[in-house]
Specification:
This protein is mainly α and about 150 residues long. The chain is built from eight helices and two strands, in the order ααααααββαα. A hairpin with a 5-residue loop joins strand 1 (about 110-115) and strand 2. It is globular.
């Protein structure tokens, strides 16, 4: 996981400018690190974001494994455990990058987790579109925010 963190840092500063800040990276790393404790037992915001946006563990092997007829027994336990242990570091690294970018864009706060574990999005909390609700219609800021919101809606 630490190797992935260093890779994330190198990716961020490989360009002429920072894609997201160090603070975003550190807070995202901590947020994703909380998932280690839950490991699929309790729905978390990171896992819900992963399900909605398909960042990781969304490959054909996962689907084939979920369709497996041998869902019980000792061999299934080891099979699932080995798959999770081999794919989890990639999940943490990808989610760290994705959450950092969401925080830099200002859309992370617009996502929340419902009681039933589903992800809820509130566009009024999304900073990318804040000018739609704070600036008068027809203003430059309003039109820019609206032009970003319409293709995404």
């Amino acid at each position: 996981m630490l190797n992935g963190l260093f890779t994330d840092i190198k990716l961020n500063w490989a360009f002429d400018r920072e894609i997201f800040s160090k603070e975003h990276l550190v807070s995202s790393f901590k947020e994703v690190g909380k998932d280690i404790v839950h490991f699929g037992t309790t729905p978390t915001k990171c896992e819900a974001i992963n399900r909605v946006y398909g960042i990781n563990d969304m490959d054909m092997n996962t689907y084939a494994q979920n369709l497996s007829s041998n869902k019980h027994g000792i061999f299934h336990f080891f099979d699932r455990y080995a798959y999770k242990m081999s794919s989890r570091p990639d999940f943490y690294n990808r989610m760290t990058i994705f959450l950092s970018q969401m925080k830099a864009d200002g859309c992370y706060e617009a996502h929340s987790l419902n009681e039933d574990g589903t992800l809820k999005y509130n566009c009024k909390k999304d900073k990318r579109y804040a000018a739609i609700w704070t600036h008068p219609k027809g203003s430059k800021e309003y039109n820019e925010a609206l032009s970003k919101y319409i293709p995404a809606a």
